Amino acid sequence: MTSEQVVRASELISSFKSRIDEPLKTWQGRLRVGVDLGTANVVVAVVDETGQPVAGALKPAQVVRDGLVVDYVGAVNIVRRLVENLRATLGAELLTAATAVPPGTGDRDSRATRYVVESSELQVVNVVDEPTAASAVLGVRDGAVVDVGGGTTGISILKEGEVVYTADEPTGGTHFTLVISGHYGLPFHEAEAMKLDPGRQPELLPLVRPVMEKVAAIVRRHLQGWDVPTVYLVGGAFSFHGFVEVMERHLDVPVLCPPEPLLVTPLGIALCCPAG
């Protein structure tokens, strides 16, 4: 990425974050929607024809596990509620959407994700893999995008703007929570709250560092044999204190983590929704 691309990506992400609380009142052309069904959060992003973030919504949820929809009714209810609220807030039609799945997801599981989104009276016009969606925000032409969410680590390698390799393995931020839960003898939801508390993260880092190192080892293995100039880190797990530094120490290539890594993929999904 050039310095201009870094600035542009940071501005887009920051704009999307602000639009979650303060949607735009005017925009250009037809609105495009991106729906990200994550292991820890469901995020809906809305952009206009120019790619400008217009609105967004986020709901913590446990309806997906390891990239697969495990609570179909719960997922449908959450997406419907978020989309209906956005329609009401914007006073506009939301007709078409894109969604995303982990790399290598089979047709059956991809269809489940599509059906959840279509339950909100959205026509799904594109289904992409999550790291590829993130690259739409970051403007990556050459490098690897690593998307670590709650349940999985997804990897896409790009050459001259084309995806040449994808992989996905079931290790992510939920595994941090399980380690914390086991160590302190806490219910999952209490361990999750502890994990998300920035003030507690430095003391929790030694506990979850082995999971971080496992993620780094997964990424390192999949990068073997590829000429990757930079690794781009996205996904909510990278909001945890010290994770980016662990990746830097264990990979042989430079790493870059944009601001608000949780929001990169949902925004990219919306950008992957065709404007026509």
UniProtKB/TrEMBL annotation:
Pfam short name (any one): PilM_2
Q: Which InterPro entries match?
A: ATPase_NBD, EutJ, FtsA/MreB, PilM
Name this polypeptide is given: Ethanolamine utilization protein EutJ
